[in-house]
Amino acid sequence: MTQQLPKTPATDTETVSGAARGAATGAEPALTGVRNFRDVGGLQAADGRRVRPGKLFRSGHLAHTTDQDAAFLATLGLHTIFDFRNSDDIKLEGPDVELPGVRNVNMPLSDPAHGADFWHTVRDGDLTALRDALGDGKGAQRMVTAYRQLILDRTAQHSRMLELLAEEPAVPALLHCAAGKDRAGTSMAIILLALGVDRAAIEADYLESNAAHRRYKVQRGDGATGAAIDPEIMQLLSPLFEARLEYLTAAFDTIEERWGSVDRYLSEGLGCTEERRARLRELLLTDD
Question: What is the CATH number of the domain that holds 266?
Answer without folding.
Answer: 3.90.190.10
